[in-house]
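Forwarding the complex inputs:
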Amino acid sequence: MIDIVLKITLVLLAIAMLGLTYRLVKGPTTPDRVIALDAMGVNLVSIAAILSILLNTSNFLDIILLIGILAFIGTVAFAKFLEKGEIIEYDRDQ
Amino acid sequence: MEILMCIVAGLLFAAAVYLMLSKSLLRIIVGTGLLSHGTHLMLLTMGGLKTGAAPVLGENTASYTDPIPQALILTAIVISFGVTAVFLVIAYRAYQELGTDNMDQLKGTEADD
Amino acid sequence: MKTNDVIFQTIAKVVFFMIIFFAVHLFFAGHYHPGGGFVGGLLTSGAIVLLMLAFDMKTIKKGFLIDFKWLISLGLLFSAGTAAGSLIFNVPFFTHAYDYFQLPLFGKTSLHTAMLFDLGVYLVVIGVTMTIIQTIGESE
Amino acid sequence: MSLLHWAILAPFIMAACVPFVRKKATAIHTGWFVLILPLVLFVSFLQYLPVTMKNDSIMQTADWIPSLGINFTAYVDGLSLLFVLLITGIGALVVLYSIYYLSKTKESLQHFYVYLLMFMGAMLGVVLSDNVITLYMFWELTSISSFLLIAYWFDRDRSRYGALKSMLITVFGGLMMLGGFLVLSIMGNTFSIRELAAQAPELNNHPLFLLAMILILFGAFTKSAQFPFYIWLPDAMEAPTPVSAYLHSATMVKAGIYLVARFSPIFAFSGYWFWIVGTVGLFTMVWASFNAVKQTDLKGILAFSTVSQLGLIMSLLGAGSAALHFDSLDDNLYTAAVIAAVFHLINHATFKGSLFMVTGIIDHETGTRDIRRLGGLMSLMPITFTLSVIGAFSMAGLPPFNGFLSKEMFLLSMVQLAELDLFNLETWGLLFPVLAWIGSVFTFIYSMIIVFRVFGGKFQPEKLEKKPHEAPFGMLISPIVLASLVILFGLFPNLLSYSLIQPAAASIVPSIIPNGGQLDVHISFWHGFTTEFMMTIGVVIIGIILYKFLPKWIGMYDYFPGKVTLNNLYNASLYTAERGSHSLTKSYMTGFIRSYLVYIFAFFITILGFTIWVKGAFRFDSSNTASIGFYEVGLVIVLLIATATILIAKSRLTSIISLGAVGYSVSLFFIIFRAPDLALTQLVIETVSTALFLLCFYHLPKLSRHEEKRRFQIGNAVIAAGVGLIVALIGISAHSTKLFPSINEYYIKNTYTKAGGENMVNVILVDFRGFDTLFEIAVLSVAALGIYGLIKLRLEKGGEQNENE
Amino acid sequence: MINLPVLPILIPLIAAIVLLFVSKSILAQRVVSVIASASTVVSAMILMAKVKSDGIQTVDMGSWPAPFGITLVSDMLSILLVLTASIITLCVVLYSFRSIGNGRERFYYYPIVQFLLLGVNGSFTTGDIFNLFVFFEIMLMSSYVLIVIGGTKIQLRESIKYILVNVISSAIFVIAVGFLYSVTGSLNMAHISARISEISTEPIITVLAVLFLIIFGLKGAIFPLYFWLPGSYAAPPAPILALFGSLLTKVGIYAILRTYTLFFYHDQPFTHDLMSLLALLTIVAGVIGALAYRDVKQILIYNIVIAVGVLLFGIATMTEESIAGTVFYLIHDMIIKAALFLLGGMIIYIAGTSNLTKMGGLIRQYPALGWTFLLASFGLAGIPPLSGFSGKLLIVRSGFSEGEYVGAIVVLLSSLAVLYSVVNLFMEAFWKTPETPLPDVKKRTGSLFIPAASLVLLSVLYGVGTEAVYPYVMQAVQTLIHPEIYIDAVLKE
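Prediction (whole assembly, five chains):
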């Protein structure tokens, strides 16, 4: 039973991925794309988690955490890029 | 699944080749990125897919997937990361020095050697 | 344009340590669970990059005091040294040794020279990523 | 190493000493020092005469590369001894002559003598070697030393041109000859000429026989300047005159003759040999003598005359091969041709050597060699005049000089050929005497030109740079010696008969000489009103008439198309080779990386496609494949859409983000395919790479897509599709042909027990295959250092100045 | 010392690490580089003596038995090549002192050269197909950096092409390893060889053979995969070019030689004939290129292509004799190419240009350079007794005996083209009267000349002393002709 539910969820997530990909491609603005990318990160976390349950393994837990961290850094970086047009400043006092 | 992945890898290769044949340096480098993705997927496929649990001992399972391609891919990923980084920086410097990222203008002739 | 990044900077400091801990965890877990020197190293650099995002390159450089290129050499020395250690015992190059020890605090732990090797990998990866990012960052 | 070996090496050792002598003893002309060597060698080789006169030989072997069968084997028989004496004898005279010819203050004598000694050693090596490989080595060395000597005055364009030309042609022949030697060695399984000759009958029936023969003849014909390879010889006249006298008339060009003579025992039985050697030689003789007449440069005439005379000797050797078809020596007319060849070889060296030296004297004293500016020197330079008369008349075949005798013998041999009923000679035989006679007529004419245009006629001092007078005595010694030999051999030919000629001829046709037997070599001055004598008279009469009316018919040379000469062919082919390859190279080395990639991928597709098709290598086996889930298909679609987005993306940001999306999808696949370590690494790496992309391309122009022609796009698409198809096909086939169990079982079993870990992938990385990882981080380190250097180090100067500090 | 085969790889690695630590001082870098290179040479010599007396030396990395771990295999072929590569590197390092410039020296030139040597030596030694890829990568990565170090315009421009081509070939290499793994289930070369010989008729093996030919052909610059080479090699300065010209393409050739004698010898009518055809086309292409340019670098670079063709023809003929010739010629070509590029570098340095039409008359001021160059040219063309001869002799002879008449003659005539191109170069640079008179002051070239001339001397000795080298080469050939020797040594059966 739970298997079927999980698999359906996976399919739904895959559809969500498709939608997000559409947004990523279409844009039209960069913030749209960044948000799509961030959401994809959340999606990835979900997929990894569900797969962990399906495969009955704890090996993917690290991945989930990692995706979380990366998505965070990525979003922050993009946010900064959008705001300042630069990701890493050399010396911000100048 | 393996057949499907072979096709996917083939498509990635095709896309990569198409990009590498274009004029824009950026597209070329993106092409190399795609190429390495295709390579890794193909390598993984060659070990057989989903034939068992993840290759980590300790879980009760009868079989594991082939760890060798995974280890090889890991090495390959890291190496292609290094290459991509160098390539990118060279492209960046080339753009700085030569003022273009159009490969047609980067052809160079004996005259200016 | 000077912007106020206080919240971001404060969070970054905290998250930095969280990521570092996770990275160290991944590194140590490597032999038994997914992870290892590569991911650990990359994630550590990720943490440093987060700091760079929040602050700036110069501050970070001052804060870290070490030249990342030196870190590369050190890492290579660790890895190559571990591998070459076997030369002293006249066993084939790269032969690792390990044993289980009863350590206080950790309990029964295996000490493995492969860990030392992986430490080298970890250091090199940090050194490499940071050198690349720093160099490119500075050139702008 | 025996004395014989040291004799060959002595010139090289001497050559090494020359620069020191030149430096230390500046007061004395270096030539005096050098002169010792050929004299000593000449005298010491004379001691072998008794041996060879008995048709015996001496062989000394020193190991060089015995494993490959290459040994330094020195071998003295009649033929080699004859050549050795020529080389050292003429060598001594030439060195003596050069002492007066080359100023010790103005010229770089050390170079001259080093080259000359190198040549002498190389030539000795050629004629004394038994091993074909050693022979080839010395052969090439003669080409090289000739190259250096021709380019002695390397400032002159003509010198360099001539040097290169001679080297290209002779080395070409040398290489072909090497090929022939190798084929021979395959047939006979040895590199030794003697051993090969011993197997001659078996070799004759070998399928490779003809190939070997033709390849070796290439060597002989190029070196001996036979048609059509003779063109290098006239240009070689840029060398100092002593060199021309030595290399380009007396010795080096005879190496080809030597080769033909040396290999006669192996090849001469074949009809091909007879025809090729005989006709090429004869044709060369006629053609060159015909061309000599129109030359205006004195050395040019001599060059063509040399070519012609070499052709004469060659044709005699060809004719002589007919002798092998007779079992006994009795009634064997054709040994006469061989004897004539050897005799003329000696004679040619004497009269042509003296003529060259005379030319050198004229050049030296008047400052020109152009016969249009010379004339009337008879009274000013009486000794020189006498010498040139002796030389030229001997060349023309007039009595009482040695040239007369050998020319008679030549005509006789050609007449006899017409009567031979071998090799289809019945039909074509008559051509031989006719051509020989025509050649002789022209020979007569140009010989007369040499004498009478220079010494007869009107003296034209206004056209000369210097005031001519007789040469210093030292310079005259050598030509006088040679001219005396011309007369001596003319009057007493039998001085040579059994000492030199018989042994040499016997080495050429050993198979028909019974053990202990000898060829009959009795050369008589007068032998009645024979056909050949009548022919000589005809030559003289017609020759005189034609010479008298030369101005009337010299114009006919203009009818020959000036552009279709072999020389122009050579020049044009070099030019075409250079220009043609330049434009060809330009056409494909476009500098566009796209073109190169197209070549590479096109090759990839065609050759692999061809292989798969021909070998029927495609396999499709879906029996042991994993199932496909719906969500997996979904992910595949995501991946492909992201990929497609890159292809059509207009902005760089889109393509970079899409690449990131592809990367994340790949890591998702890694999760699905149970590869947690991969997924972890891929995720982080993808993030870092994307960041790097953004960092690096921050400064790039917004619109980085350059519009491409539709034609290109379609072409690209086709190639891309082809590559993808091939990769997928091979992938599927490879997956469907899993023939062996993987070695991975070992890792699964031993990860915990032997390596003390649980995560197989990581244990493989740091332990089982840690060696890979060690160098993988090294790769990363190099990349980082490279990037650091790239950004920080900026040498402003162009690439070429990098050689400077 | 059971780890002897590791040393030629380990010493450069350690040296590189030490060099990274002392990167601040140029003097220290030079000293360490020389010491390290010299000790690599010494260790290679010791190893060679060992291989000579005891046969193939193997070390199982990490004590994991073959085929499960990575095994280093020093057979005679690999150690000969390792020794040659190490000697060349030593000479190039010495040459670099005065020619490469302080800028590059400060930016890790020396450690990267050591990494390059490490990659080359590793490629020659490893017995594992994936490890070969890793060593290729380290070699390539070093070459990427070396080709672009200094960052001049032309270097940047050409390095892009160079990297792109190599990225492609690396990618194909990885998937080819994957295919091979899928079919044979192993990565150890000896093991793969043993397994392939059981299934020799499988058509997929032929396909893989062609695939590997393409991969290594891209590195080794065979027709029609060599187009990237002339442009890219012309970019870096002479010492780097010498390393590239003498080592990198030869690694590709080595890999072809190794795989085609160890794995892919079962379908010779197809694979080797294909290779033979490509070899001849490569020669022709190289000749066309060498004749096309009036530029020191280009002429020498196209000579690389010609040599590659000759070597490939030797491999394609695939008899004991031709393989022996190939090994002889391979070593010769490495030495003489390095020497010629170094000498060519001196010519360019003295004349201030690499364009032949703009130089001339150097012989008066630099006679030693001129004659050494001419000697090296003759060596390159294979004039006996210089070094190129014995190899070419064997290759041509076996070509004739195998009935490949056209091929043998093409190889022979390629010598003529080689001779023409280099002698023409010599005449233009040294003999021709220059358009502008040369400056009176001689440039100091002693420290450049000595390493270059010692390579020429080595090449001459190699040629004259062929007999001394012969047993070594034949030992190498035995392993190549009889793969079971290799397999037994590695798998210890």
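The CA atoms of residues 360 and 434 of chain E lie 4 Å apart.
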